[in-house]
Amino acid sequence: MEIVIDTVSKAYGNTQALDEVSMSVSRGELFGLIGPDGAGKTTLMRILTSLLLPDKGRAELAGLDSRKDFKALRNILGYMPGRFSLYQDLSVEENLTFFASIFGEKFDPDFYLIRDIYAQLAPFKKRLAGRLSGGMKQKLALCCALIHKPRILILDEPTTGVDAVSRKEFWDMLSQLRQEQITTLVSTPYMDEAVRCDRVALIQAGKIMDINTPAGVVDSFKPELYSIATPHIYQTLLALKEYNDTYSVYPFGQVIHFIPTDASVSPHKVQDYLTKKGIEAVSITPALPNIEDCFMELMQDEHTNG
Amino acid sequence: MNTQTDNKPIIAVRNLVKKFGSFTANDHLTFDVHKGEIFGFLGANGAGKTTAIRILCGLSAPTSGELTVAGFDVYKNADQIKKNIGYMSQKFSLYDDMTVWENIRFYAGIYRMRRKDIREKTADLLKKLDLEPVRDKLIAGLSVGWKQKLAFSIAIFHSPAIVFLDEPTGGVDPVTRRQFWEMIYEAASNGITVFVTTHYMDEAEYCDRVCIMTEGKIIAMNTPSKLKEEYDTDSMDEVFRKLARNVET
User: Fold this and answer.
1) Helix H segments across chain A?
2) B60-91 residue pLDDT tens
3) A275 lies in which domain range?
4) CB within 8 Å of chain B, chain A residues 130-159
5) Mutation for B interface: A14, A170, A254, A293, most B CBs within 10 A
6) Chain B contact for A253 (CB, 8 A cutoff)
7) Number of domain units in chain A
8) Based on CB atoms within 10 Å of each CB, which residue in A163, A166, B95, B108 is the most buried?
């Protein structure tokens, strides 16, 4: 195992940021840490990068202990913090030269790990980093994290605040890096990005709720799930909230997702109930869950959300 | 939702242009929003969304074009517009160093609500949001999800005709996000028009109708279903990717 996290806990005052988190990542894996703000993603990444000490437990990366071997560890890590932390008043080229020199390297635009990404940045190489668009900043930060040929890459929400086009491009780059046997741990609050990972950990309130392949997460979703299409979304939601056979009901974009208390509750029965409530023009069809449905189901399992 | 619509739009925009020097932030925008509609205003950072929303809120004057918001002309009656709208953004919403109750009273006071109304509505709101136990707690101690729900409730506390939500969600868990959308649906069903900007394309799926902007121009406007049909895909993300080329300027 390239990354081993063993019962790591960390508290800030009364807030338990991480609660006995254990997981491991294989060499060359693209591993996603998926959860909302405040789930503990950044805390875990800061512990792995030796920037923060856990209260309990330990972490090992490429055989190096994050506490004892921090100096050696930092040389083999590429880290992209959540906040853009390159020098805004240095140009693209100057940032790359600077980060290369820290690791005793020279910046080479043709270096195989950064060549393809830098090709997109090259037209703006004289531009100040602070004047790049969000997507371009992320590409530059990724280049800087790769410039010393790290063995492990740790990326803290690289796609937050970036538009849909740049997000897709960024994931395409990560998929390419996978070919180079670099182990990548990447965090994101966007559930839909889970499908781009080999495996994901779903994290909420400092606890890992599930670790699986994206397909495995969806396969382990047990309840019957129905998609309800209606022009009267709000009225239908209200009606189903007070329905006896409702286990859960929530808006899901243009439709409503509905889970009955047990599998014997037929769509017909639900339809009849809604008709009695005066809600017509409803279509109820079985639906395939996505990662968001799974995440919510796991949250409901863990505890009632407050 | 737009179950019943007046014929007269609540927001009417014709050929809105806003220039900053030689830079055109809004380039001939034309659109209508109807009463009780949830209207999504989408685009990447820098597409011109914030510029347009500031003009619609009466905070910035357009360079040219005709605009009425809640029946008022933005050139002549900007102050009337401000009284008849609510506004919430992820960045600026509540005062961290005031309590839950103080924040409600402060905003209600700004809109000159009567004391009796404030008292009654505050009690209702705290009860509805289950915030009674923390009414005297500082905002700083609330979770992001609770802040969002409270900020939205405060933005519609004075029963405005329109509420503008500027990048309101993001970063919250999927359950909290849906609770927030349910509140939006409720407001819309009470006849409040909801104008929401976001760069999260999956949020667009919750809107009745969306308008997509790039580089100051509207490049698409329709219901999410129609857009997905038109661009032959099952996600708004993909619609956006097909519409917007990634041009660095």
Assistant:
1) 41-48, 70-76, 92-102, 115-121, 134-146, 164-178, 214-219, 233-241, 267-276, 291-302
2) 999 999 999 999 999 999 999 999 999 998 77
3) 226-288
4) 133-136
5) A254
6) yes
7) 2
8) A163
